[in-house]
Design a protein that fits this description.
Blueprint: H1 10-36, H2 51-56, E1 65-69, H3 73-79, H4 83-90, E2 114-118, H5 124-138, E3 144-149, H6 156-168, E4 172-178, E5 181-182, E6 185-186, H7 198-202, E7 206-211, H8 215-230, E8 236-241, H9 259-268, H10 270-280, H11 286-309, E9 348-351, H12 353-367, E10 371-375, H13 392-396, E11 400-402, H14 407-418, E12 423-430, H15 438-445, H16 448-451, E13 461-466, H17 482-486, E14 492-494, H18 499-510, E15 516-521, H19 522-525, E16 530-533, E17 545-548, E18 553-557, H20 561-573, E19 579-583, E20 586-588, H21 592-602, E21 605-612, H22 617-628, E22 638-642, H23 651-657, H24 661-674
Parallel strand pairs: 1-2, 1-3, 3-4, 4-8, 7-8, 10-11, 10-12, 12-13, 13-15, 14-15, 18-19, 18-21, 21-22
Antiparallel strand pairs: 5-6, 9-16, 14-20, 17-19
């Protein structure tokens, strides 16, 4: 006779076991294939943790968002990711969920709600906040669950994400699958914490501990948590106690626990225990369970066979999905000519660069309700440290979100919201602070389109002020770090030199389909005002501008150094040296077409930037000019950048260590003397 007083509906328990069986079949199928040499790839087993996602699957659906880790194959299976596409992705096949470009550590499958899988420990938590914010902002009843192991609780990104989620009361569940070991180091060797759930209480929201090996108790606890979060109760941290029976990677039992500990864990393993519970309670008989298990094994075998038969993702796809437009990808010998902007004819207003940035954001917020702004102190009355957002919160309300001082949380939330259709503008104050959140920028935002095979993409903008040249800010507020971004495929970079360009470039960034960095030079932030149109206008990314015509040498620059080049050109003109000045405006994509056309005419070139000259962007441009125009150059293209030293606090040193009009003019004179 079937018992019905278990505290769970019998059919629900049966479905939980059915998902656990599918997860186990996937685990066994992969490990068998690896052991037999049928295929080879990195594999991180989740043996022993099947109950957690199998139970959650009964309480959520495809509309709910999930973020997980490289070890989260069990999470993917239970979430409803198609097995044939999942296996094909793991095998690097073009029929994979993400065209074979991400592999199992980077699954994105919006159709099932599996939004992001990250191979960086703990990095998914800030991104999950963005998903949860998008749902909250739109008034949706979605719940976001971000899965991570106990080891990730040592990562700063998780703490930053939890703090922001608590402050904003986001509909998110931080699901710590506590399997008692962080890669190879077991608790308590890496933390003195008695539990992890208490950390949530310190940040102002609830944390609970549940038995992740007991489907009945876990279902009861998770139902209450999910219902609470779905109804707007804010975040909850769940510490689900479990045990990873397998090793960190590969096959077999864990060599990092004692044999006795592994044997005890197998006794508590929810898969056989749940099976026995179904029989003991009369919910299922042996034949029914055997059929269920055979069905799962057949599903896995067929999906693996289909994946094995699929073509490998071809080399011809290498540059596809770096950006939305493959022509934006820099390729030696291919220098597309892009149309210049249409000059607006409407009313204008004299603006400094900081005012133009605020006006661009005003236009964007009026144009598209999906645009929102987040960052430290961005609200009124200050509108940010540099007043680049002044008045926006008063006008647009909760679409302007001041954040904690927490750069990882800021960029991660922007990214998460962007992959579900919002257009965030994330302010990171100084570019120096990019080092605090470079993982979110370089490993996640920049790579999301590529790793997902364009299943998702990130139309987000990161705004940063670039210091230097003024004196008195010191080594951690004055660096020009654009080379960091330019060496990271997948992110576009705009670097205006004046207010007119700042507005037009920022609007193009905000409405671009790829992640963009908009770098705002402090040296001209409050400098000379120029007439800026009040209407919406866009300066196409990848279009340089000739700021001064000349015949003897081309000065190529960007940001505040453009103005130094123009000043140098005026001094050189007094000596009969006629310099042409090109403002790149956009560094990625780069307008080599206009650069090469100019140098072909002047037959000399000097690239100028404030960033350290060694390994700077000037080396790339000078090298390309020398390669493409060797036969017409009067002398090799040169470059002039900052000295190889941190920016000094001393204004005398700083003014000497970055290019200025006088040093630029001296460099030009030396080049012309050497190669008249």
């Amino acid at each position: 006779m079937t018992k019905t007083n278990l505290g769970i509906d019998p059919e629900t328990l049966k479905r939980i076991y059915g998902q656990m069986v599918r997860i186990r079949a996937v685990d066994k199928g992969v490990q068998a294939g690896l052991s037999a040499g049928r295929f080879m790839f990195s594999y991180w087993p989740m043996t022993g943790q099947e109950c957690i996602p199998a139970t959650i699957a009964q309480l959520t659906d495809r509309q709910d968002y999930m973020v997980t880790t490289y070890r989260g194959l069990h999470d993917q299976v239970a979430k409803g990711v198609a097995l044939d596409g999942l296996f094909a992705e793991m095998l690097g096949r073009e029929s994979g969920l993400n065209k074979g470009k991400g592999g199992s550590p980077h699954i994105s499958d919006p159709s099932s709600g599996s939004m992001v899988t990250t191979a960086i420990v703990g990095a998914g938590a800030p991104i999950a906040n963005g998903l949860a914010y998008a749902a909250q902002f739109r008034g949706e009843r979605r719940v976001t669950i971000v899965n991570f192991g106990d080891g990730a609780t040592s990562i700063g990104a998780v703490h930053e994400a939890m703090n922001l989620a608590g402050a904003w009361k986001l509909p998110i569940i931080f699901m710590c699958q506590n399997n008692s070991i962080a890669e190879y180091t077991a608790i308590p060797d890496y933390t003195a914490s008695k539990n992890f759930a208490a950390r949530a209480e310190a940040l102002g929201f609830r944390g609970i501990v549940l038995d992740g090996n007991d489907p009945v108790a876990f279902h009861t606890g998770m139902k209450q948590v999910i219902d609470e979060v779905r109804e707007g109760g804010g975040p909850v941290f769940v510490e689900a106690l479990t045990f990873r029976i397998g090793p960190h990677a590969g096959v077999g039992d864990s060599p990092n626990h004692t044999k006795e500990a592994v044997a005890a864990a197998k006794e508590r393993w929810p898969l056989p225990r749940t099976r026995q519970l179904l029989i003991d309670t009369g919910i299922c008989d042996e034949a029914e369970l055997t059929a269920l298990e055979q069905t799962a094994e057949t599903e896995v075998a067929e999906a693996l066979a289909a994946a094995m038969a699929a073509p490998v993702t071809p080399v011809t796809d290498t540059l596809i999905d770096v950006f939305a437009d493959v022509d934006a990808v820099p390729q030696r010998g291919r220098y597309p000519a892009r149309a210049d902007e249409a000059v607006p004819s409407g009313p204008t207003k004299p603006m400094a660069l900081f005012e133009a940035v605020a006006d661009a954001q005003r236009v964007a917020l009026e144009t598209d309700p999906a645009v929102w702004l987040l960052g430290e102190d961005v609200g009124d009355p200050h509108g940010g440290v540099f007043a680049t957002n002044r008045g926006l919160q008063t006008r647009f309300g909760n679409r302007i979100r001041p954040t904690p001082i927490s750069e990882q949380a800021i960029v991660g939330a922007a990214l998460g919201s962007s992959i579900v259709g919002m257009r965030p503008i994330a302010e990171i104050m100084f570019s120096d602070f990019m080092g605090v959140c470079l993982d979110q920028i370089a490993n996640h935002a920049a790579k999301q389109r590529y790793m997902s095979g364009a299943a998702t993409h990130a139309p987000m903008t990161i705004r940063m002020v670039v210091g230097g040249g003024l004196g008195g800010l010191g080594a951690q507020h004055s660096q020009s770090l654009e080379a960091w971004l330019l060496h990271t495929p997948g992110i576009k970079v705009a670097f205006p030199s004046n207010a007119f360009d700042a507005k037009g470039l920022l609007l193009s960034c905000i409405f671009d389909e790829d992640p963009c960095a908009h770098l705002e030079p402090l040296g001209v932030l409050r400098g000379l005002k120029v007439d800026v149109p009040l209407e919406d206008y866009r300066i196409p990314l990848g279009v340089a501008k000739v700021k001064r015509l000349g015949r003897d040498i081309t000065l190529i620059s960007y940001g505040w150094e453009v103005n130094q080049c123009l000043a140098a050109a005026e001094e050189l003109a007094k000596e009969g040296i006629d310099a042409e000045v090109i403002d790149l405006r956009t560094l990625m994509p780069l307008d080599y077409h206009r650069v090469l056309d100019s140098v072909r005419k002047t037959r000399r070139a000097l690239v100028v930037h404030a960033a350290v000259e060694f390994c700077g962007f000037g080396a790339e441009i000078a090298s390309t000019v020398n390669t493409e125009l060797f036969s017409v150059l009067k002398g090799p293209a040169g470059r002039l950048g900052g000295d190889y030293a941190p920016i000094a606090y001393s204004s005398d040193i700083e003014k000497h260590q970055v290019p200025r009009a006088a040093s630029i003019a001296d460099c030009v004179r030396a080049m012309i003397k050497a190669h008249p």
